[in-house]
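Can anyone check this?
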Amino acid sequence: MQHLEAVKAQHGFGPGAGYVATQLPQVQFFWSTQTVPRAPLIYNAGIVLILQGHKIGYLGDHVFTYDPDHYLVVSLPTPFDCATFATAEDPMLGLFINIEPAELRSLAPLVDSDTLSPTAAPLGLSPAPADAELKGSVDRLLKALCSEAESQALGNGIVREILFHALKGPHGPALQALAKSDSHYDRVARSITLIREHYPDNISVDALAETAGMSAPVFYRAFKSITGSSPLQYLKATRLSRAKGLLLEGSIGVAEAAHRVGYENAAHFSREFKKHFQVSPKEAQSSGYHPIDL
């Protein structure tokens, strides 16, 4: 990508990992200058474009790579683990584009339904091949991000173009479903918003189903079909992911991290943590890496 060096110079990045806003409010530039073993991550609904380097994601038994040839579509926020591969001389660089629901709804009817894959991906996130058209759009976006005038004049149109390509790609059906205001995707998304905003609370499946406007049995089936996990498994994964992030910051102990994410019993928390991450909270804390959520 010929404009990547200019973007690096424009936005800059320091040692470790981080992200910064760009000229466009819906686009963020992120980086890592070090290889990082599996760490928790939660993306908002959006498109992840790796410009240099690569990441490997782990969601249950599902393992996937995203790199300059494979962009990541996040149709629903999903807690998962991610390993980053980078060095100071060869950093991992990427862009995150938030999916704006209004933009998605305006573009969805423009995509020929005959070109869509017959079924939507069952997971809330999965990589897709980046074809020449998408790569061309990304390069134009990089160029626009280097100029305030070009960002204002052309940026939103290029972002819209990238979203249009995503709608035509393998995850078009999932994005189409998300664009419909009363689809199962949209209803499950409402329940996920509740989980993300109130995960320390005692949230029941009935309460999540009520938020989604569905009966509990129908909601349970829809949630598992779309996210790959049950509602309570998703809630637990969110709590444990947030707890791991707190521990990796190094500012609090295990008992306090457990309390902050909704566990009353630290021993119970430690058992579930080790079962989920294959390491104890103390072992995780020793890695000292602070994950980034976008």
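Reply from J.R.: I decoded it. The chain has two domains: 4-179, 184-285.
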